[in-house]
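> call design_seq(struct)
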C-alpha cells in the first residue's frame, strides 16, 4: 500500500478529520476537535498532516506549539489512523513527517500523552520512535465516555520525543527486529516489579515490589486492555491502579521508561523497561502530574 503524507488543507479533508476522530475513538461531537481549530493551529506554527491512500484521507496527526521556560516544543494533541489501516506503519510515517516539519522550523522536541496500558501506542512511541517517559499524569481529563476510554480514569504517560538525540536517531533508522516479551522473560536478565496471574487469556494484576533498587526493572502490563475491559472492567481498573502505583513510585525515584517489549504468545504480558538514568532536561512538565481537580 502506497501511503503518502501531506498537509491537510482542503475543506473536504478537514471535515474528514471529524469523521476519523468519530470512527477511531468513537468521540461525540463535544470531544471532536473542529477543523477550524486544526487549520488555525497549522497556520500558527502547528502541524496538521494527513496520511493518504490515493485520494482518501485515512489518518492525521495534529499538534500546536507549547512552551516550557524559554523552550519551544510541539505538543502533539491527536493522532488517529482509521481502524482498518492501523498497525501497518502509518502512525510511524505520520510521526516521521511531523518530526521533519518541526526540525525544519528549528524545533527539536515533540511531546504527547498516551495511555500506558495501550500496547500499540507503546510499541510505536517507545520502540519505533525512541521516545522516553519520566512523568505519569493522573486522570488528566477526568471521566470520558467515548468507547475507547470509558470506565477507566484517564491516566497518561507524558512522552518526550527529543528529535535529535542518538537514541531517537538510532530507533527511527533501525531495521533490527523489535524486542519480544518472550525474550525478556526467557533471558531472565532483569527483575520484575510485578506479576500477572492468568485465568485463560485474562491476566489479573498480582504482587508488586515498590522498593527495588536495580539499575533496570521490568513492569508487566496486560497485552490487550480493551479485551479485558469487554470481559471485566474491574480487572482493567485493577491494572490501572497497580501500574499507577508502580510508575509513579519508580518515576519519583529517578527511573525512566526506555523500552517496551510486546507480548507474542498467549498468557504473556507486554513489558516496559525502566532504567535508573540521569536525563538532563530544560523542560518542566510537572504541572501535568497533579492531574485535574474534580
Ligand atoms: C495509535 C495509532 C495512531 C498508531 O498508528 P498505527 O498506524 O497503528 O501505528 P504503527 O503501525 O506505525 O505502529 C503500531 C505498532 O504497534 C504494534 N502493535 C499492534 N498491536 C499491538 C499490541 N496489542 N501490543 C503491542 N504492540 C502492538 C504494531 O504491530 C506496530 O508495530 P510493528 O511496526 O513492529 O508491527 C493508531 O493505532 C490509532 O489511531 N489508535 C487509536 C487512537 C489513538 O490511540 N491515538 C493516539 C493517541 S492520541
Amino acid at each position: 500500500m502506497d501511503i503518502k503524507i501531506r498537509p491537510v488543507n482542503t475543506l473536504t479533508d478537514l471535515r474528514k478529520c471529524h469523521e476519523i476522530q468519530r470512527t477511531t475513538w468513537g468521540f461525540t461531537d463535544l470531544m471532536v476537535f473542529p477543523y477550524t481549530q486544526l487549520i488555525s493551529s497549522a497556520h500558527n506554527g502547528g502541524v496538521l498532516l494527513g496520511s493518504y491512500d490515493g485520494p482518501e484521507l485515512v489518518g492525521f496527526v495534529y499538534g500546536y506549539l507549547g512552551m516550557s521556560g524559554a523552550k519551544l516544543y510541539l505538543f502533539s494533541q491527536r493522532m488517529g489512523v482509521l481502524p482498518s489501516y492501523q498497525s501497518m506503519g502509518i502512525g510511524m510515517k505520520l510521526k516521521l513527517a511531523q518530526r521533519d516539519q518541526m526540525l525544519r522550523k528549528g524545533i527539536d522536541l515533540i511531546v504527547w500523552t498516551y495511555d500506558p496500558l495501550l500496547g500499540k501506542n507503546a510499541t510505536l512511541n517507545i520502540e519505533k520512535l525512541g521516545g522516553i517517559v519520566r512523568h505519569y499524569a493522573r486522570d488528566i481529563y477526568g471521566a470520558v465516555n467515548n468507547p475507547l476510554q470509558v470506565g477507566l480514569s484517564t491516566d497518561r504517560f507524558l512522552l518526550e520525543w527529543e528529535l535529535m538525540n542518538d537514541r531517537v536517531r538510532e530507533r527511527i533508522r533501525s531495521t533490527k527486529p523489535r524486542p519480544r516479551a518472550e525474550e525478556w522473560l526467557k533471558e531472565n536478565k532483569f527483575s520484575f516489579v510485578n506479576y500477572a496471574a492468568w485465568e485463560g487469556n485474562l491476566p489479573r494484576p498480582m504482587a508488586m515490589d515498590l522498593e527495588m533498587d536495580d539499575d533496570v526493572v521490568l513492569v508487566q502490563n496486560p497485552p490487550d486492555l480493551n479485551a479485558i475491559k469487554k470481559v471485566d472492567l474491574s480487572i482493567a481498573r485493577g491494572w490501572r491502579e497497580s501500574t499507577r502505583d508502580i510508575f509513579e513510585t519508580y518515576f519519583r525515584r529517578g527511573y525512566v521508561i526506555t523500552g517496551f517489549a510486546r507480548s507474542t504468545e498467549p498468557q504473556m504480558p507486554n513489558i516496559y523497561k525502566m532504567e535508573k538514568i540521569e536525563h538532563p532536561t530544560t523542560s518542566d512538565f510537572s504541572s501535568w502530574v497533579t492531574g485535574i481537580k474534580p
